Structure to design on (508 residues):
């Protein structure tokens, strides 16, 4: 998760209610229409990419939840059919800062317990797979519900014993140096694949491993709030090549995912090209993974990134493997946080063509700000010792997708009849203006033949109708006052879409 300092540009909150020039072929709408009714045309015969599903990482929270009275309750909320039905479980292979006497990470939630431990008698590190028991319990519970078909093992850093600084929270005086010596690359590869084999032998459906996370950010230095490791372009390439070669040498039934780039405009395209075109990596490449940070209100950037993907890595699976609202300015009871999350999901699926979408964490720590509100960024919020929890509004944003669009669904071409692109001018002329639509939408054909369309409305109340090959529709609506309410079931018809709402429509 990206936590490095970012300069937030002051913006002038002026929405241009005039004709807006947009790239031809990407958006192609008429003049700006702020209040017009929305009509969405969905073409069942125009199929695009197949969805692998939705997920969340168990990073940090699972090691506390697994030892609480809410272990099964929380896991069901996230991974059972009665809850979100998430089918992707991201398991954190921690760097062991909970075991490191030299750690400078102050938050106990972000210190991880490792399978790789020092034998005090021999002075050697050995594997102990009884450790991280709480997190393993959460994984086992999630698997028991029958919904999880994809487990991703990921690491924010190599184990602290392998690092240059002796910590898994980064190296170097300013954080911009890799914390893993090239001489220890093979040691890290062996460590990660040994742990992977343990999970495979248990029967865990580990589909992908991801040993690098957000390599472009500065970890360490003055910032030691969590585990992380910086890598240069060459180091990303060389380390992942070694992983690919060893996966093949061991004959392991697992694919490589990477490089978990922290933002689409920060080296992502060059990394994707490098990995996609490398013969060793390509043989075991599962997904090219990016994080959708710092692009929440740059829809044109996402569209351009999606076009680049189609032109340069056309048959690769692309995974949006981590996102949360940064900075988090929406408290957990506000519809605003849900709207932002739903918009980001819709945009990543529609414009970048992501084949899967994962929230950063299923649960995060509760934190009361000076105004008395809780601005935690998880789908669920819990106190430090996990004796209390609360469902965030953004949980329902995820539900509008994950509960209705299963893995194996195929994205459909759909088109809006209006242009409601909003532009917010920034003070710095060297920066792009912020751009987002007042309404955002994405449509899928499910394996059982249903068409599902999600519409995110951050604008005014307006009429909503569809042109689609269907005769019946069921509508589920979330607003500030109600969540996932069945607001209409019947014949295909025009409905009223409330202001600031999320709507899922299931057509039959």
């Amino acid at each position: 998760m990206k936590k490095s300092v970012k300069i937030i540009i002051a913006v002038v909150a002026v929405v241009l209610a005039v004709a807006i020039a947009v790239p031809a072929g990407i958006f192609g709408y008429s003049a700006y229409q702020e209040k017009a009714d929305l009509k969405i045309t969905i073409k069942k015969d125009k199929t695009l990419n197949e969805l692998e599903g939705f997920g969340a990482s168990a990073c940090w929270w699972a090691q506390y939840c697994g030892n609480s009275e809410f272990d099964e309750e929380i896991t069901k909320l996230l991974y059972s059919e009665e809850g979100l039905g998430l089918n992707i479980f991201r398991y954190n292979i921690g760097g062991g800062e909970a075991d490191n006497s030299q750690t400078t990470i102050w938050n106990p939630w972000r210190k991880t317990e490792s399978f790789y431990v020092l034998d005090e008698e021999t002075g050697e590190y050995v594997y102990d797979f009884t450790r991280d028991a709480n997190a393993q319990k959460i994984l086992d519970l999630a698997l028991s519900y029958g919904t999880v078909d994809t487990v991703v093992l990921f690491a924010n850093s190599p184990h602290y014993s392998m690092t240059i600084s002796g910590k898994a929270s980064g190296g170097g005086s300013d954080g911009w140096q890799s914390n893993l010596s090239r001489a220890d690359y093979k040691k890290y590869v062996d460590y990660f694949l040994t742990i992977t084999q343990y999970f495979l032998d248990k029967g865990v459906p580990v589909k992908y491993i991801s040993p690098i996370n957000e390599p472009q950010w500065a970890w360490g230095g003055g910032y030691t709030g969590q585990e992380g490791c910086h890598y240069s372009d060459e180091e990303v390439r060389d380390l992942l090549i070694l992983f690919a070669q060893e996966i093949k040498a061991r004959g392991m039934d697992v694919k490589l995912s990477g490089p978990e780039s922290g933002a689409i405009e920060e080296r992502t395209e060059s990394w994707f090209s490098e990995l996609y075109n490398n013969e060793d990596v390509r043989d075991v490449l599962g997904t090219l993974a990016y994080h959708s940070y710092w692009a929440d209100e740059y829809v044109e950037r996402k569209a351009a990134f999606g076009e680049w993907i189609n032109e340069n890595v056309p048959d690769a699976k692309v995974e949006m493997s981590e996102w949360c609202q940064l900075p988090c300015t929406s408290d957990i009871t506000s519809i605003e946080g849900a709207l932002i999350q739903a918009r980001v999901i819709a945009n990543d699926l529609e414009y970048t063509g992501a084949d899967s979408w994962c929230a950063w964490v299923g649960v995060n720590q509760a934190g009361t700000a000076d105004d008395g509100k809780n601005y935690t960024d998880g789908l669920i919020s819990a106190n430090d010792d996990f004796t209390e929890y609360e469902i965030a509004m953004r949980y329902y944003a995820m539900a509008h997708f994950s509960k209705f669009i299963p893995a194996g669904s195929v994205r459909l071409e759909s088109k809006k009849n209006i242009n409601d692109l909003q532009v917010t001018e920034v003070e710095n002329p060297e920066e792009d203006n912020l751009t987002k639509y007042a309404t955002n939408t994405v449509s899928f054909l499910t394996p059982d033949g249903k068409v599902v369309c999600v519409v995110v409305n951050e604008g005014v109340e307006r009429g909503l109708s569809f042109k689609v090959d269907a005769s019946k529709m069921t509508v589920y609506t979330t607003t500030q006052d109600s969540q996932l309410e069945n607001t209409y079931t019947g014949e295909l018809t025009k409905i009223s879409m409330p202001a600031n709402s999320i709507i899922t429509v299931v057509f039959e």
Remarks:
- Confidence is low (pLDDT under 50) at residues 1-30.
